[in-house]
Amino acid sequence: MSGTAVPFRIGARTLLSVRRDLVRVALSLDAALAGHVPPLPPAGGDGYLVTSLPASRLGEVDAAGRLIAVRQRYMRYHADLTIGHDRWHAGLSRSARATLARKCRRAAAAGVEIRAYRTPQELGAFHPIAQAVSATTYQARLLDAGWPCDAVSLAGLHALAAADGLRAWALLVRGAPAAYLCCTAEGATLRYEHVGHDPAFGALSPGVVLQAAAMRALFKDRFACLDFTEGEGQHKRLFATASVACADLLVLRPTMSNRVLLAALAAFDGGVAAAKRATRHPRLAPLTRRLRR
Q1: Which residues pair with 251 in a beta bridge?
Q2: What are phi and psi of 265, to 5 degrees?
Q3: What is the distance between the terminal CA atoms of the chain, rounded to a whole angstrom?
């Protein structure tokens, strides 16, 4: 079935998705920082998915009588690569610096090797490593968002590499692929695009160690900014230098089926939020910990 999946999701797990014919309107980091409100292009189908709309401008979208629902709110993180590694590192909290140092020492003792890739030829060597790691990740298993293996996506990545618009890294533990990171360029901004790590190596924090190595390289590169894109996470907060409050919107035609969909999403999200609040109750906390184990 074609179209865009509108997921009913708990954390990273999608329980159900409903397809709608949507036009994606994605704001760049620069547009989000500037407080831009995009005009919605002419479209048929069911409507639009607007991503990274500045949260301060939520009420200014011209929906033209369509239904609007906020799907998620988040901070869009980014790192200023013009300040230099030393200043960036000094801006971390004392505990963050100590944690990074400890994890990097542990990884070095375990025989970690980090390789960098940027040319089309190097991308050819990177692809099987990223593919092997991606197959082990929850992004690939639960979100259908692993390393892209289709011919069109790979051709696009090769074209970017040929134009000096790609930076990628892989982390191996005694020769075994453990983590990968691939960033794509848009002007002077590098986008945090494809990432994953094998949970079998989780004790070595391969994603954090790999990102730390990438940051050291990027502060010497030509880019002015690393855009961590949509969504939050401790990893992004750790390495970023700033953020902007954003939201994703569904803008749908006011049909009965779309009204039912939005009502179901609101009820589902409300139930998930209530369940999360309940698990934080002191009497339920021990049970929650046992279930997680």
Answers
A1: 48, 68
A2: -65, -45
A3: 37
Report the distance separating Cα 40 and Cα 47, nearest Å.
9
Cβ(168)–Cβ(118) below 8 Å: yes
Where helices occur in 110-245 by DSSP H, the ranges are 120-134, 138-142, 151-162, 206-218, 234-239
Query: What is the C-alpha to C-alpha distance for residues 175 and 171, in angstroms, rounded to an integer?
Result: 9
Helix, strand and coil percent figures for the chain, each rounded to 5: 40, 30, 25
Place of tokens 């590169």: 221
Q: Compute the distance between CA of residue 192 and CA of residue 230 in angstroms, rounded to an integer.
A: 10
Instruction: For residue 130, give the 3-state DSSP assignment.
Output: helix
Of 31, 70, 59, the residue nearest 252 (C-alpha): 70
Q: How many CB atoms lie within 10 A of CB 84?
A: 12
- Per-residue pLDDT reduced to its tens digit, 181-215: 999 999 999 999 999 999 999 999 999 999 999 99
The verdict on pTM exceeding 0.70 is yes
Torsion of CA 210, 215, 218, 220, to 10 degrees: -120
Q: What backbone phi and psi angles, to 5 degrees, belong to 22?
A: -120, 145
* Tokens encoding 289: 């910990």
